[in-house]
Design brief:
alpha/beta, Leucine-rich repeat, LRR (right-handed beta-alpha superhelix), 26 helices, globular, FBXL18_LRR
């Protein structure tokens, strides 16, 4: 009786969730997926039934990463709250059948709609848009077979009122752009392949009968991102042709992201000249060939710029300071800067400079002082070697940027100059980064206790001090300046990799341990760190960075052996919030012990392993998939035979597809000649976000699309 009375007393003194105020409950419910709120939570009690239908929860419905949603759930959701939805995001819902789009017609009050990555035909799009008279923002894909002539007059009337359009092109086409006569923001993603599945070369010419008069007169933002290939370049020139005739007066953001060589033409030169005369920009990104060797930046006018990208340009630091920052002009408005691959951006001149020469610290200091509110900074894919002078190290100067949320640096930029000068090369530094005969070396031991590690490094390491000063950093990329992934976009897998920079040879476990100071870290990328001996720093990261959601590791330590496997498995046991894991390492063994450790990552959704000569255990993979119920993407490109890969892929799909509608499995030999054909079938969401390696810091302007 005493025990029962004590339990009753505890219950009476306990907190009942329903006793919270409506404001607090609404805030809690805002973290619950809308499908769960409407289809499950609201059926539990009367109070929640009312709160779950509150306008603050039904106004915006996000399904873009709700991997458990299916056609029936979407149908029921639209029936229950369709009229209350003003913004609907279904981006990347590749697993939903095209008929699911028909239910969007119930959302009569829609203002913003994102269907990127969804299967939508011309006729379905026409039927849907005909009923959405209030629509002002639209994102769609244009696939082969799209026919603008099938769009009804009611559909075109809706499109004429759309002011924001995001269009991903998989075929040469204007899509719906000519119908959008009120465009203010236009985002174009060109994903057109040069060859068809049958092997025929494609042309960049548009379909006969398509209008070639896009309406740009009200345009404020123009953004184009091109995948590799000449067809994408041909098609984007057609979109730019109209801009070159008459530049919109209100244009304030002009961004073109193009890999490789994208030559300037007479039309594009006229466009840039017109922009220099008539507009003041807030955001700018141009292909490197349009900037290199030209005086364009000297003539362009800027208002309150918030984003600059000079990725892969030969722009020198002197030009950067004089033409962009105007000799130290106050640029507090600039929040995002991408200098990835801009090898001379921290040097006064580029004419007689070698890429490996020391940087000019005064240029970086001017940049830091002028752009003191930077939140996103990318300095990767270049050799930024600090001079020996005290106080002028790159890490010391960057520590002044207290507002940084994301940062990308080359490995050689974080090494301690004094340590490199004073210490002779160790045995580990001399180990060849090749696949030849393995060299046996002594393994240096590192303390696993974080406080011990801190005591060792806090006085001597400039990188440790930098990590300590950027307490609110959410994304960090440390990438070798000569690193290239074994999986490029539209080419066969790379068989040989370049050796790391000499300055990077000392970067290893202690530097990784320094990262554990970033309490709020959500995304971490480490590539080509040569001096990883045990991987002990990874354990510190797993213990201290409890918000980590994305982890990408590539080519750490010796290339002939995965020296950090034990530490990685210890780390994974602590990563309860990890959702995306990408591993790229030769000779990686994806066996039972690895997958058992990975099973501790209860939130894991996507896994990608790229390993030349790597092996896997099929039983271990199946057991892992059975234990980790949230996993919906499994990509493995290993050294196994085609038969082993196909059998495992079929087994996973057969066993788990029914319960996981979004399941996407690709298991294929890395060096197989048909790899590129397999890659083209991967949903763009996974391909762009995890499967392909790239630096993502400041890749696009912040808040480019909702």
């Amino acid at each position: 009786q005493e025990i029962v009375s004590e339990e009753n007393e505890e219950e009476s003194n306990g907190i009942n969730l329903m006793e919270f105020s409506d404001e607090i409950l609404l805030h809690i419910l805002s973290y619950v997926p809308c499908t769960d709120l409407v289809l499950n939570v609201r059926r539990t009690c009367r109070k929640l039934a009312t709160l779950c239908l509150d306008k603050s929860l039904t106004h915006t419905v996000l399904l873009q990463k709700d991997y458990k949603v299916n056609k029936d759930k979407v149908k029921q959701l639209m029936r229950d709250i369709g009229k209350e939805i003003y913004q609907l995001n279904m981006a990347g819902c590749y697993w939903l059948p095209s008929s699911t789009i028909d239910h969007v017609t119930r959302c009569k009050n829609l203002v913003k709609l994102n269907l990127s990555g969804c299967h939508v035909t011309s006729l379905r799009l026409s039927k849907m848009l005909s009923t959405l008279q209030h629509l002002r923002s639209l994102a769609i894909d244009v696939n082969p077979g799209f026919d603008a002539s099938q769009l009804s007059s009611e559909c075109k009337a809706t499109l004429s009122r759309v002011s924001e359009l995001k269009q991903t092109l998989y075929t040469p086409s204007y899509g719906v752009v000519p119908c959008c006569t009120s465009l203010e923001k236009l985002l174009l993603y060109f994903e057109i392949l040069d060859r068809s599945r049958e092997g025929f070369m494609l042309s960049g010419q548009l379909m006969v009968g398509e209008s070639n008069v896009p309406h740009y007169q009200n345009l404020r933002v123009f953004y184009a991102r091109l995948a590799p290939g000449y067809v994408n370049q041909e098609v984007v020139r057609l979109y730019l042709a109209v801009l070159s005739d008459r530049t919109p007066e209100n244009l304030h953001a002009f961004l073109i992201s193009a890999p490789g060589s994208f030559a300037e033409t007479g039309a594009t030169k006229n466009l840039l000249d017109s922009m220099a005369r008539n507009v003041r920009l807030d955001a700018l990104q141009l292909p490197k060939a349009w900037i290199n060797g030209s005086g364009l930046l000297q003539h362009l006018k800027f208002n309150n710029p918030f984003y600059f990208s000079f990725s892969r340009c030969t722009l020198s630091g002197g030009h950067l300071i004089q033409r962009v920052i105007n000799g130290g002009k106050d640029l507090k408005s600039l929040t995002s800067l991408n200098l990835s691959g801009c090898v001379h951006c921290l040097a006064p001149e580029s004419l007689f400079r070698k890429a490996e020469d020391d940087i000019d610290s005064s240029i970086l200091e001017s940049l830091v002082v002028s752009c003191c509110n930077l939140r996103h900074l990318n300095l990767s894919a270049a050799h930024h070697h600090s001079p020996e002078s005290i106080g002028n190290h790159l890490c010391q100067l960057l520590s002044r940027l207290k507002h940084l949320l994301s940062l990308a640096l080359p490995v050689c930029s974080i090494t301690d100059v004094a340590a490199n000068v004073e210490k002779p090369p160790t045995a580990s530094n001399l180990v060849p980064q090749t696949f030849g005969r393995k060299v046996r070396i002594g393994i240096q031991t590192y303390p696993r206790n974080l406080s011990d590690q801190a005591n060792q490094k806090i006085d001597s390491s400039v990188f440790w001090a930098l990590m300590g000063s950027l307490r609110f950093l959410e994304t960090l990329e440390i990438i070798g300046s000569s690193f290239s992934s074994a999986m490029p976009r539209n080419e066969p897998a790379i068989r040989n990799s370049l050796p790391p920079c000499v300055r990077a040879q000392s970067v290893g476990d202690s530097e990784v341990a320094a990262i554990s100071q970033l309490t709020y870290l959500q995304s971490l990328t480490l590539a080509q760190l040569p001096n990883i001996l045990t991987g002990s720093g990874l354990i510190n990261v797993g213990l201290q960075c409890q918000h980590l959601r994305t982890l990408s590791l590539a080519n750490l330590g010796m290339m002939g052996k995965v020296v950090y496997m034990s530490a990685l498995m210890d780390m994974l046991k602590h990563c309860k919030c990890l959702r995306d894991l990408r591993l790229e390492q030769p000779y990686f063994c994806a066996g039972a012990q690895f997958f058992q450790a990975l099973s501790h990552c209860s939130s894991l959704q996507r896994l990608c392993i790229v390993s030349r000569s790597g092996t896997l255990q099929s039983d271990a993979v199946m057991s892992f998939m059975a234990n980790c119920l949230e996993v919906i993407m499994c990509h493995m490109f290993m050294g196994e035979s085609l038969t082993v890969c196909k059998n495992l892929q079929q087994s996973i799909v057969r066993s788990f597809q029914a319960d996981r509608p979004a399941l996407n499995v690709v298991i294929f030999p890395l060096l197989h000649e048909d790899l590129t054909e397999v890659i083209r079938d991967v949903p763009m969401r996974h391909l762009d976000e995890i499967t392909l390696f790239k630096s993502r810091v400041a890749e696009e302007p912040p808040n480019l699309w909702w």
